[in-house]
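Below is how a single chain appears once it has passed through the pipeline. First comes the sequence as given, then the structure the pipeline wrote out for it. We keep one example in the README because the format questions we get most often are answered faster by looking than by reading.
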Amino acid sequence: MSDRLAERSATVLVVDDNLQNREVAEGHLVGAGYEAVQAESGDEALAVLRAGIVKPDLVLLDVLMPGLDGFETCRRIRVLPGGSQIPILFLTALGDLGTHKAALDSGADDFLTKPINRTELLIRVRSLLRIKELSDEQARSLAVISTQRDALVEAQRQKEELTALIIHDLKNPLSSILSNVQFALGQQSLGVDERDSLRDVLRASQSMVRMVMNLLDISRSEDGALVPHLSEFELPGLLGEVSSEMERRIEDKDQRLELNLYVTGVEDEPLEPAAAEEERGPHS
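Resulting structure:
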């Protein structure tokens, strides 16, 4: 028996119209540490299950009974709430293959022939309870996985909403900064230093705009909506833009940045990559 079932005695519902058979089965089960509840007919067994007074871990069910036989009782148990998870072990004095097939077709998990052999009964009961416990563990694991999946989906939704909110809140002030800087650069009264400073502000603001747009791209890429497009660009122009952004910072540190672009190659052969050199001043 599994550790979880060992915490309590598993309960077996014994259904048989013959009192002696029920008493024998109960004696074997109780002697092995199980609890047993008796029902003398299919109708009584169904009433016990519907009332919920007893929640058996397994049903030991006779086939030949007056009124509802074992086959019909089994089918009705299976449609009860939770009835599909209860192991059902048939007891039958009939050993033909037709009876065994009918038992399995009605929803039985296993069958045992009469007269009851104690060892065989306990082996079948133990095996079916173990299978039930493994099935219950699987159901609990699936429930945990489902809960974790829902939590991840919710976290992803909140992240997307937060990203959209950040992008929206950043675009408006950045647009205002860019507009005002561009207006100020159009004024003729600006000195050289002031104009250079405003250009730095402009480049920094444009860089922030690109970062905001990158956030959008990341969100779109996670949704599979971002499709990369390759395009050519001028390497000298790119390096010149990088150099111009760094000039004032380097000058404030009494340093100098010099970019030398060396391009060599012949027709139909790839060009060598550009090389950038940095010359530092005395405070480097």
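Residues 1-7, 268-284 have pLDDT under 50 and may be disordered.

See the next section for the split statistics.
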